[in-house]
Amino acid sequence: MRQRVEPTVDRALAREHGLTDGEWARILELLGRAPTFPELGIFSVMWSEHCSYKSSKRHLLTLPTEGEAVLIGPGENAGAVSIGDGLAVVFKIESHNHPSFIEPVQGAATGVGGILRDVFTMGARPIASLDSIRFGPLEDPRQRWLLRGVVDGIGGYGNCVGVPTVGGETTFHPCYRGNILVNAFNLGVVETDRIFRARASGVGNPVIYVGSKTGRDGIHGASLLASAEFDEESEAKRPTVQVGDPFTEKCLIEACLELMRTDAIVGIQDMGAAGLTCSSFEMASCAGTGIEMDLDRVPQRAADLTPYELLLSESQERMLLVARAGQEERVREIFARWELEAVVVGRVTDDGRMRVRWHGDVVVDIPVDPVSRSAPVLDRPAREPADLRERQKLDPAALAPEEDLAEALEALLDSPNLGSRGWVWRQYDQLVQGSTVLGPGGDAALVRIRREDGTPTRKGIALAVDCNPRWCWLDPYGGALAAVAEAARNVACTGARPLALTNCLNFGNPEKPEVMWEFREAVRGLGEAARQLGTPVVSGNVSFYNETAGRSIYPTPTVAMVGLLEPWERHAVSHFPAPGLSVCLLGETREELGGSEWLALRRGLEAGVPPAVDLEAERRLHRLLAEAIGAGNVRCAHDVSDGGLAVALAECTFTGPAGLRVGAVLSLPDAVRPEALLFGESTGRVVVASQNAEELVRLAARQRVPLRHLGETGGERLVIGPPAGTPWIDRQVTGLARIWERALSRRLEEA
Amino acid sequence: MFAVIQFPGSNDDRDMAFAVKSVLGAEARLVWHRQAELPAGTRAVLLPGGFSYGDYLRCGAMARFSPVMGAVRRFAEAGGPVLGTCNGFQVLCEARMLPGALLRNRGLHFVCDWVHVRVERDDTLFTTRAREGQVLRLPIKHGEGRYFAEPDELARLEANRQVLLRYCKPDGDFSEAANPNGSVAHVAGVVNVRGNVFGLMPHPEHAVDARLGGDDGLRVLGSLLDAVARGTGR
Fold this sequence. Notes:
Chain A is an alpha+beta fold and 751 residues long.
């Protein structure tokens, strides 16, 4: 018999595992003895911030999670929302920040792999991915290396598994220099009555391990890498980053979906964070059962793996499933066809305990429920940052006016945060699966929905992901409101009705009261906006400890919104499609320069109060857009956001397909100063191009949406000016387009 | 019936079958790579895009050894039409059913974009629905699509008029900027000497619906459908 060589388990070792003294005492109390080494590993993972949500849980409980269409809310692998006719969409967004900072290609790749598994674990075929990625300034060569690596990782994985990346955001700010953000979103489609859950039910049923073999990679990825701040030694954690294999994932998707069309399985769970441990605990806990497992049967690709390593490995592309007794052979057959392992490693028991054997020894024997359910819930202190009021101070009168507004527009179009992201998304397969109606680059992506057998439906799903971290730093509550409002508005700009959202809450160290305050305020804002807009939160992820050497990132509550458009053919685009259309501005422009891109770029200031959000007005705007686009009146609708109205109008002139350029001659009311008019970022505004302005005016009046007629599309120039007098901006569209198109690529290719 | 070959890692297989069935209204069947024979009634073979066997070695290098490729070769030798797109083109080159090779893109990056290609011949099984000199707009999405052939081989290709598609500007002229991957002589697609095996990097199956970006792919797939209807390959 093999002997285990293991360290002595005591309070000191528990501390090294990130457990507090209080948690250690609780373990002793629960077990009535000291834990074994593998058991200590299990507690450290299950009670880590990453797996237990101990700092965030009490706040997350305040979010609205229910609604007519919601089939499954937070708590499962992903949320599920009905889209009618027996179909549902399943979606979630998740962070992979720390692994991507240490090893950008594999970190980002496995982020994509993990979120795909969350979706197909529920029986859904993944059909669309988005990514929200944030870096430090591109002047820093390390940031360019990180961006190249992350894009390579996302593309390399997504392209190979055959799931299109249809949109996302890429932004730059010094606060991410030491802690980049990589948030990956995926959405899948499933027949409502074929949704699977992570349940180990049916005493005596076999527990089957499928997918890749287990190795030493990623041990403590979740507990140590994701649940602590970065320091100079973080580089040494590179071995804790897992390596992705998209080919195996592709085969795993097909094999799982094939298996799910049979009645052979009762539950299935992805082996993500903390691998075998988390998946088996979650499945047993959901079903109120126990599991006994024999580690010797686990497929292994390294020699002499210890029980501790086998239980905590985060090797990728593995799933755990519970089959109906007697169906083992059927499961094996399907997986063998895809050249994947499927091995019975244990069975479901009725005693509520997790019992794990290794070479005949019982190495783990603990009650399931106390470990997974009574994970600690903390009420961490929260305190408003001392300098918050200082941040919000801004005297607009002291801001020097622009001498040449056209030059200012060109500078904005040339900035990394506003220029074309074509360099990024040209590296992603946007078209595989043949359903991409609107790809990256517009307000929201739009994909048409087909059934699993390929039958087309008339349903389209609109998707957008948004957050303005600067606004959240200046006002976390208002910034979170705005993130939800903008994501919903982007979805509405296609003509779709916003349905539900998922969020990825990226924050600093929750042990700092200022960070906890930012978190609490942001969650309050998310909840308020989600309630008012009728878009419940159906899934999400919290990523704390995003700081390096004590410096936290800006609070970044990323919101991904999903909407429904039926029929999908009745959609708008975000560029001027033709000359001779009336250009109108929906919504109200106020003198709001606080937190704007213009202020940061042109005046070097990050200050002020961000623009106000009127959720009631946003709802009316959604209704108007759905009505006007559905009626064919509005053919172009483009959200006014970063960079303000002038940037939005410029984008309308040159972002069409195949180099389409459509100019416009427009006049704006000069009620507020030109900088605020052209570059201010007042919320709730959309630029539209209409075939019938008179009818649109009538529709807008009925929904009580302020509307201003600005001019007509046509010509080769973009001309914007006051109602009378010399235009502020008068430029060739091709010239503006060239500046915008090169903004990112020239910084990456010429560097 | 169109046989769409399915390797583990193929990912445009379902789209190809969908284009044939729903858009062309013909019959299509997915054929698993382990099958040593094509289904009875196969009138054309389609090798779809994707990453066969993960493409961890060279694109298409593993797929050519799969049992089904023996059957595809016999089918082609009997005169049956075979069309390979993207990874399917790479597999045909690896299997030496088409000349040349596909290398890493000039810019080293994966490129997903709509491009223009000029039709060089309209008298082949795959191009009868187009005109010679016509410019088609089709999507590409690949990391290894830079066509390469040694100078003497390229000269033979040109002499035999085996280049069916070349990357071009919207007006049909050639420029390096309009060549998305650095292919030699702007080659986007080549046919074998006999004229029944065609490989191209662009994706006709993703250009079959004007509402989703364009339908020029029907010029290629539709030509093949016409050829099958005429009884080619029987």
